[in-house]
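Following up on my earlier message about pyridoxal-5'-phosphate. Here are the inputs again, as you asked, copied directly from the submission form:
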Amino acid sequence: MTSRLLRQIPKTDNILSRPAIKAAQDHYPYAFVKATVQACLDDLREKALHDRIDTIPPMEAIEDTILSWLQAGHLNHLKRVINATGVVLHTNLGRAPLGEAAAAHLAELAKGYCNLEYDLENGKRGSRYAHVEKLLCELTGAEAAMVVNNNAGAVFLMLNTLAKGKKVAVSRGELVEIGGSFRIPEIMYESGAEMVEIGCTNKTHPRDYERAMDELGAEHIFKAYTSNFVINGFTESVSVAEMAKMAHERGGLVLFDQGSGFLFPPEAMGMHVGNLACAGLKDGADVVCFSGDKLLGSAQCGILLGKKEYIERIKKNQLTRMLRIDKLSLAVLEICLQFCRDPKLAQEKIPALRMLSMTEQECRFNAEQLCGMIREAIPTCDAKVISVKDEAGGGSMAGVLLDGAAVAMSFPSVTAERAETLLHLRELPVVARVSRDCLLLSVRTLFEEDLPEVVEAVRELYALPMGRER
Ligand SMILES: *Cc1c(COP(=O)(O)O)cnc(C)c1O
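Thanks, got it. Here's what our run produced:
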């Protein structure tokens, strides 16, 4: 069956020689047309191999598809997907979605020139950091601030500038690996700081830091937020305030990789979990850094806050140039920071914040709506609303589960795992979850506009021919 279908797929050259496709070559480069034809045929082959079609469409229909793909610039590999996982800051799905207002501002800036490094008042060269520094200081109470490409870069730059060639005490309970490629020990090594490991995995005491500084030659203290794991049982750690007291008494600094944080108390959004991005600073750390696209819900970037003299030294580090933030991320960051002046506005305009603060009731309500739409489109579908645990994701709130709701269903001709895979192969992919042989569509991370497309995706799975799977 499958091999018969595969044999019916037309040849690239046959399609390229058809008049409509030939005519398209007046508007698009030949290589682009050819690649689009091949992509369309690959797509058919893929569908035939996975039993998603029963017949190969007629030549005219294939031609129409190719023409519409050409128009849509279909060959992009990086493309939009629908997130039905309930994981808000899904690192593999690009972390924070931007929302209308930030996206519109971004588009406006991207289309033309901007005053990135131009001081309009004085008609002179300006600093790209000036656009957000004041705002960051206003929102966090920091003396000075700067922004780089991402938080990994911020950690590296902080250590390289302030601790290169120096011994730095760090607790064994904080030697974390984040996302497979960011490991505290390696980053410290590369930055030129010498790590003095202290304490144990579960317990580190103030006396461990004192000993490191008094007897082992450590000058500074480094702290990393354990953003993607929790240690239960007998644990003990030292507060930032205690660290600051010990370090400052000995002329050292506390450098804190805070990972992630909100710019206002989470209670302002009705949430009772999550920390403040400036908490470490208020407790006495000299420099803190965190991601722009985790709990801030903004663009990929790393934010450094701290005492003016240290931030100025970081700005002067030659390596800053390699880690500098681009204008598009800066535009998004600035508008998100503007929103953060008012927690209610931030929650309304920054999708990640809205999603994180959704109550179980709101999730249920949305799930009932989606479930209703699915059952209306496919009356025989067994879709039902169930409770699920969602996550903040992105290593931002380890161990915190958010009460949410999902639509769960099974399919007559495919297993839930198979359905999950097929959803990834769509032109507009849907990323879902599977649990106990059911496909779960968690609504926390769905946008209102996604719902009709999700219903269509479920309908496609229902329309699959019977009896060939399982
Ligand atoms: C996420 C995280 C990082 C890395 O931040 P990126 O913005 O992904 O580069 C570093 N440290 C901690 C503690 C984190 O949680």
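One observation from looking it over: The longest strand covers residues 401-409. Hope that helps, and feel free to reply on this thread.
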